[in-house]
Amino acid sequence: MKYECVSQELRDYADGSNDDFVKALCTGIERLLPDSESPVRLNLIASCFRELLTYQLDCLAAHAAVQQCPWYVQDPTAQAATRRQRLRFAISGGLPDAALGTLGFDEPASIAELADHYKEASKYTHVRPDRINHSDDEVGDFVLAGVTALTGLREEIDYLCDNVKEHLRDAISEHALQKFLETELDELDILSTHTRVECPYVDEIDVEKIDHAYVYVNVTGDVNVELVYGSRSDFRRGDGATLNDSFPFQVSLRSPVNNLENFETTQQIKVDTSSWYE
Question: Are residues 54 and 159 in the same domain?
Fold first, then answer.
């Protein structure tokens, strides 16, 4: 079996990570691939894959966090959260089944694929006489299946975040408008005698994380304002003036995993009015 395709998949996965340990394990696996003279080539690769998944789960799904999720039920055969439960948390945090259903999100195939691949990796890691001297095809298939499943996990995380963003966009827009109406913003008020907020437009929604209790989002956009100069009497005399303008804004929010449209502000609205002074 030629390994160019498998090696490229490994490099692509490594390039998508900013973690040096992940990159090092992928490099190690790639260097082991062509060593067909080693009777324990697959065993060493399997060990790297098992530790790679374990490390990823430790980063994304700590046992304590998983056990605080509203959907968590202790498996009577396990002492802590199972691997499948940790994989679910890595993808969707504490979002309960009802919320996932609303988002149109079923259990990803990558959960079963990674759980099964971990079992197979564990089998090869425990070296026995009948578990050495694997063919090129066996080695290539094992690595390709593993990196495909890991890539699937990353894609499922991105896919869920995209679903959350689109589902919450209207509710976030309404919340942003309400916050603009009820919050005095010095950076806007200083621009005129009276500043009226007309409408904020949400541009980007970034799902920063989903933990056991909340979905955290960072929101950016532009707010349209009417700048009023002069009092009512000034306007009656024809001395008042109005000007329309817009400025970029940013706000950080969070919502409970079991009530996604109930937002609270974690970082107050910031409006960038620097363009006004240019």
Answer: yes
